[in-house]
Design brief:
alpha+beta, eight-stranded antiparallel barrel, 10 strands, 40% strand
């Protein structure tokens, strides 16, 4: 039975690819108080991120649209090898008492992944965090700084990094996203 965690880790390691697992359970960051989903809807550009195996391209953006059943249509896109790639998913509010805690799934067979809005002013920037515990032994996380435009002032990015750090989220590996030459024809 002592071998069980090692076997589980060996099985899961290939699935987390570029992610760096952290020991212990996920942190429990504070999310946006009085979050208003309707104001969050629309187009958001990725400004910076923790490395993610599923995001390899440039010009990454996501468009959120509220559906009549109060679920969210989520369309993410990137340019990879001179080709525009899109993926569509569904988002839901996972905790009605805490509407900034969304869940997003890009497949009918996969569960919703946490997509927590830590901070947003709705018109300029948003900070998003996602974390998954693996048997409470370690966790894998993702973090994004999003903007309504393809660039944000450096002071906004620095403040975002401070908010992540204040919530015990390691953003030392956060990298700027490539948002240049995005409007050129492919």
């Amino acid at each position: 039975m002592k071998l069980f965690p090692v076997v589980v880790f060996a099985f899961i390691l290939p699935l987390i690819g570029a992610q760096v697992p952290h020991w212990g359970p996920c942190p429990e960051p504070e999310v946006q108080p009085a979050f208003t989903l309707k104001q969050f809807m629309g187009r958001w550009f990725e400004i910076a991120k923790l490395p993610a195996q599923f995001e390899k391209g440039r010009c990454i953006e996501t468009n959120f649209t509220l559906k009549t059943d109060n679920s969210i249509r989520v369309v993410s896109s990137e340019i990879l090898k001179a080709e525009l790639r899109k993926i569509e998913g569904t988002g839901v509010i996972e905790d009605m008492k805490n509407p900034a805690k969304l869940g997003i799934s890009y497949s009918y067979v996969l569960p919703y992944s946490p997509y927590w809005i830590l901070s947003t002013d709705y018109v300029n920037s948003a900070l998003v965090y996602s974390c998954t515990d693996i048997l409470r032994l370690f966790h894998v996380d993702f973090a994004w700084i999003l903007g309504r435009t393809r660039t944000l002032p450096e002071a906004t990015v620095e403040k975002a990094m401070e908010i992540f750090a204040k919530n015990n989220i390691d953003v030392s590996r956060m990298t700027p996203s490539r948002q240049k030459d995005c409007d050129k024809t492919l």
